[in-house]
Design goal:
about 130 residues; Hypothetical protein af1432
Length: about 130
């Protein structure tokens, strides 16, 4: 898995192509979710491979907004399936990324500890002054 290369590919697209009408679902939000997921993964002693899956899911979780806001989680998975093979992600890793992305769909229903972290990272702002 080449997370840094995937980040370098997708983040400029999010920064430049997301509609300014999405005041919450922005590149800034995606960066904050990645950061929150990283902090929680460290606190929970998640191993490095799992952290890469989690970070990748955080990176792609709102990428679907590049296409449309309706069913954006599904579109985020479509984009992950399209782009992640270019960054040495195999089918199993991509399926895991997509399960984490789909766990963020409201109402959230995480089915694993990693999905719980992903959901918490996506809504971390609720516990802040933002």
């Amino acid at each position: 898995m080449q997370y840094e290369q995937a980040y370098s590919f997708l983040m400029p697209k999010l920064e430049q192509e997301l509609s300014p009408d999405y005041s919450y679902h922005s590149a800034h939000h995606t960066k904050a979710v990645i950061d929150a997921a990283d902090r929680m993964a460290i606190a929970e002693n998640i191993d490095d491979n799992e952290k890469e899956i989690l970070r990748t899911a955080a990176l792609f979780h709102d990428a679907g907004f590049l296409e449309h806001h309706v069913h954006h989680e599904e579109m985020s998975c479509t984009l992950a399936r399209q782009y992640l093979p270019n960054f040495c992600y195999n089918e199993t890793e991509i399926n895991r990324v997509c399960r984490l992305i789909m766990a963020t769909k409201l109402p959230q229903a995480p089915g694993s500890p990693l999905e719980e972290i992903m959901c918490d990272a996506d809504l971390y702002y609720l516990g802040t002054d933002r």
